[in-house]
């Protein structure tokens, strides 16, 4: 039986970003240094495959610190945590390592600086996302107002429009966030923003790569987890550019092949917490069904690296 031809437009950059690589390496280094088990508060990154791999090495994932036994090391996820979490760890004398992405920590520092300067803060983000919970938890309750869209930007009320600032979640849609910020600037001309935008380089680059292929493909698959904000944004970006079939898939087994009937040009990318092995798995599944030709579409080259916490260096004391 002859296979139908399929051209795969492979977006680049895709997959792991520097913050995700750092967070995973922190767990692996902690396991090497302290031995299993090592506890991790919340999924280290939003990808079940990554979490399962670390579980096989001895990581135990929990949602709250009260699930961590005394004298066990614990790691905080890449999304960041409210300040009460490390405070509780210190009260219990737990040894902890903070794997918060440095670009999320940058947003935390911005929030603290605005608070010290007497400003009220508007956070653009998704309610309930761990990063948003962590950012809002850096300051006393009521210091930050959360908005999610342009509608809320049009109606949000502030007491002092001359002492106001905005910050954003790092994994938002670049275009949607720009529109929200434009509304805030129109309503509050004196509002302070970040010197360098809060949406991280990896989110921006992966959305740019999707934009480069979305109008040229019949369908697009985003490899990523359903609770991954940056992965969901990639689907939205493709859909807004007219790609009629844009789907989020965790791995090859989740692909709805029936929805790809008649597709001749298929875009593939991956969210920042999805490993390349899952992209390769989807491509292999395509090869089983089609005569595949791959076109790599690159919009930029990434070379960002983040340092690991000093406590995990080979020479650092474990006590």
Question: What do you see in this structure?
Answer:
- The protein has 319 residues and is of the alpha/beta class.
- The chain folds into three domains: 4-16 and 201-298, Cobalt-precorrin-4 Transmethylase, domain 1 (3-Layer(aba) Sandwich), CATH 3.40.1010; 18-101, Rossmann fold; 102-187, Cobalt-precorrin-4 Transmethylase, domain 1, CATH 3.40.1010.
- The chain has helices at residues 18-34, 48-57, 84-91, 102-116, 130-136, 150-155, 174-187, 201-214, 229-240, 276-289; strands spanning 4-12, 38-41, 59-62, 74-76, 96-98, 120-124, 144-147, 164-168, 219-223, 245-249, 265-270, 290-298.
- The strands form three sheets. It has a five-stranded parallel sheet with strand order 10-9-11-1-12, sandwiched between helices. The chain has a four-stranded parallel sheet with strand order 3-2-4-5, sandwiched between helices.
- Helix 8 runs parallel beside helix 9.
Short characterization:
Helix 8 runs parallel beside helix 9. 37% of the residues lie in helices and 19% in strands. The radius of gyration is 21 Å and the shape is flat.
How many angstroms does the end-to-end distance come to?
64 Å
Care to count the β-strands?
A: 12
Gross geometry:
flat
Low-confidence stretches: none
Strand percentage: 15-25%
Text of the CATH class of the largest domain: Alpha Beta
Q: What structural class should be given to the helix and strand makeup?
A: alpha/beta
Question: Helical residue percent?
Answer: 25-40%
Largest sheet: 5 strands, parallel
> For this structure, what is the CATH homologous superfamily of the largest domain?
4-hydroxy-3-methylbut-2-enyl diphosphate reductase, catalytic domain
CATH topology annotation of the largest domain = Cobalt-precorrin-4 Transmethylase, domain 1
What Rg do the Cα atoms give?
Answer: 21 Å
Strand order, main sheet: write it out. 10-9-11-1-12
Q: What is the N-to-C succession of helices and strands?
A: EHEHEEHEHEHEHEHHEHEEHE
Number of helices: 10
């Amino acid at each position: 039986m002859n296979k139908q031809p399929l051209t795969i437009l492979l977006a680049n950059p895709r997959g792991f970003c520097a913050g995700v690589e750092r967070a995973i390496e922190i767990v692996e280094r902690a396991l090497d240094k302290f031995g299993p088990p090592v506890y991790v508060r919340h999924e280290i990154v939003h990808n079940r495959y990554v979490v399962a791999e670390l579980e096989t090495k001895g990581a135990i994932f929990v949602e709250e610190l009260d699930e961590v036994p005394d004298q066990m090391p614990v790691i905080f996820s890449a999304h960041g945590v409210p300040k009460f979490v490390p405070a509780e760890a210190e009260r219990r004398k737990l040894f902890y390592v903070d794997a918060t992405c440095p670009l999320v920590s940058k947003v935390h520092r911005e929030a603290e600086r605005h608070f010290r300067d007497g400003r009220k803060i508007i956070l653009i983000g998704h309610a309930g996302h761990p990063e948003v919970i962590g950012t809002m938890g850096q300051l006393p309750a009521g210091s930050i107002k959360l908005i999610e869209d342009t509608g809320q930007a049009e109606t949000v009320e502030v007491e002092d429009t001359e002492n106001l600032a905005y910050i954003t979640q790092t994994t938002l849609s670049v275009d949607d966030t720009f529109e929200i910020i434009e509304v805030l600037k129109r309503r509050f001309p004196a509002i302070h923003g970040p010197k360098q935008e809060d949406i991280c380089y990896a989110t921006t680059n992966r959305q740019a790569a999707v934009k480069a292929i979305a109008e040229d493909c019949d369908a697009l698959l985003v490899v990523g987890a359903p609770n991954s904000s940056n992965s969901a944004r990639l689907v939205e970006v493709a859909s807004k550019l007219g790609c009629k079939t844009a789907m989020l898939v965790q791995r090859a087994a989740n692909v709805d092949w029936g929805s790809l009937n008649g597709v001749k040009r298929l875009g593939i990318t991956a969210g920042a917490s999805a490993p390349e092995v899952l992209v390769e798995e989807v491509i292999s599944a395509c090869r089983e069904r089609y005569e595949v030709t791959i076109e790599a579409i690159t919009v930029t080259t990434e070379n960002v690296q983040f340092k690991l916490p000093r406590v995990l260096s080979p020479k650092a004391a474990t006590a």
